[in-house]
Design brief:
This protein has 486 residues and is an alpha/beta fold. The chain has 23 helices and 16 strands.
Length: 486
């Protein structure tokens, strides 16, 4: 029998339906999924051995939860995914403002309706997708917003005295009874509003304008907070922290592979069919974000969100798309010069410290790209020592010699067509021999990006010099600029 076809209290009783609290629902459904080896938090990567086990332990303990971490660490996503641990449908008394359980009513309306109509009391079924409420904590949030207030219009329409509790207009929390309720950025909530949550979390009663209502609300609270908020804007008052069962620390991806999975999953791009993105380009993009998190110019307490790499990847594809449209190419591959197009994504998403402001956001972003190239270079090619003897042979000697003996400057213009770009790189004849020796298993389709990456890397290790001008980039041997000066 389809239980959702039952529409009266009497029918619900005959079906043998058993009420349970939302925390028991989450706990029992989690146990069921764990026993069947089902992935509970799909689409969340890098937390398999850290955050998710802690979150599962908190659910098993029937705790209210505080997710503490820097921005862009999937805190809200984790909270929303908990919906999947709820029963698909639950019964509710028809007309109840606070999702009253027909077998365990708590509001005056539901209690009186059941007393009056008995087993004929109409019910409806609430789907789990409707059992999620979310509030961003902002300084203008009031007790009336989240708990409730006296409604004079209701009192006038129903001709009720202000002493009658039916004049109360319930706020967001009572209306989310039997639901998951998320308060984002909890420290931003004024201390007096946080105090209003004490009794709801512990004693199960609410106080509104002199009314003290015994409303044992059945809720799963999830709070999110940023450690930065504790010092910059506000704090979580101690008695409230004491009433939150589990505080779970989130973190950024710990390796490039995990970061790539997240970026590819989240990036919204429609250009993927005709733009080839080498794996090295994806690695480089993520390494830029890792460099940003370690940069002395960027405020580490503020964090560098995973949204940076997502936005940067979308900008990278759009830069290649724009270039290919202007050049008339039907297909193209990512080039290193395209990484200039991600700079707006970086400058808009990092908080600079004083020294960073002095350098300038543009310079900091450009330096992050250079540092990322320098960091990745040794994982693909032979190490370049800081100090080398003049007589010591280097694997890069043939490439550097080519630039030294070149009759004209080597330039990669931004508006080169795909054909012109390939022809230009093919001029550097030692590159093919070098790649076949040190990257024999490389995807042939990625060869030209890898060649360009090699040139940029040699610049960072002072084997070549690079000059950026309005139309593109010029590469020379390291003494080229000095000779030009003479």
């Amino acid at each position: 029998m389809n239980i959702t076809k039952i529409n009266t209290l009497g029918g619900l009783k005959k079906s043998g339906y058993q009420s349970k609290s939302i925390k028991d629902e989450l706990r029992e459904n989690l146990i069921s999924k764990m026993m069947s080896k089902e992935t509970v938090f799909k689409g969340v990567h890098g937390y398999e051995n850290t955050v998710i086990p802690e979150l599962e332990r908190a659910i098993l303990s029937r705790h209210n939860i505080n997710l503490l971490g820097l921005r862009g660490q999937a805190k809200t996503r984790l909270a929303r995914l908990m919906i999947n641990l709820l029963d698909e449908y639950i019964p509710v008394v028809q007309g109840s403002e606070i999702n009253d359980d027909p077998l365990n009513p708590i509001s005056r309306f539901a209690i009186e309706a059941i007393r009056e109509k008995g087993d004929e009391t109409p019910i409806y079924w609430l789907h789990r997708q409707e059992r999620f409420a979310e509030k961003l904590a902002t300084p203008d949030v009031t007790v009336a917003d989240i708990i409730g207030d006296v409604d004079p219009i209701k009192a006038a329409n129903l001709k009720l005295s202000y002493a009658d509790d039916r004049v109360i207009h319930y706020g967001m929390i009572p209306r989310a009874n039997r639901c998951i309720f998320v308060i984002n950025e909890l420290p931003d909530l004024q201390a007096r509003i946080q105090v209003a949550l004490f009794n709801i979390l512990q004693e199960g009663d609410i106080q509104i304008r002199g009314f003290k209502l015994r409303l044992p609300l059945d809720m799963q609270f999830i709070f999110t907070a940023n450690p930065e908020d504790y010092t910059n804007r506000g704090s979580i008052v101690t008695p409230l922290k004491d009433r939150i069962g589990s505080q779970i620390l989130t973190h950024y991806p710990e390796d490039i592979e995990t970061a790539k999975i997240i970026t590819q999953q989240e990036a919204k791009s429609i250009q993927k069919d005709f733009i080839q993105v080498p794996e090295l380009a994806k690695d480089l993009l993520e390494q830029i974000v890792f460099e940003a998190r370690e940069s002395e110019y960027i405020d580490a307490k503020s964090g560098v969100s995973a949204r940076l790499s997502i936005s940067a990847f979308e900008n990278l594809l759009s830069t290649a798309e724009r270039r290919s449209i202007l050049a008339g190419d039907d297909e193209t591959m990512i080039r290193l010069n395209d990484f200039d197009g991600i700079i707006p994504s970086i400058t808009g998403k990092v908080e600079l410290v004083y020294e960073g402001e002095q350098e300038g956001a543009q310079v900091v972003a450009e330096n992050l790209i250079k540092k990322a190239i320098k960091s990745l270079f040794p994982t693909y090619f032979p190490e370049i020592k800081k100090l080398e003897k003049a007589t010591e042979e280097s694997p890069y000697d043939d490439i550097v010699s080519w630039f030294f003996n070149a009759d004209e400057d080597f330039e990669l213009l931004d508006d080169y067509s795909e054909k012109a770009y390939i022809l230009e790189l093919d001029k550097i004849t030692p590159l093919n021999k070098f790649l076949s020796k040190y990257q024999p298993n490389m995807n042939p389709d990625d060869a030209y990006f890898v060649k360009e990456f090699l040139l940029w890397g040699l610049v960072e290790f002072k084997k070549l010099s690079k000059y950026r001008f309005a139309e593109g980039t010029q590469f020379k041997d390291p003494y080229g600029n000095f000779m030009d000066g003479l």
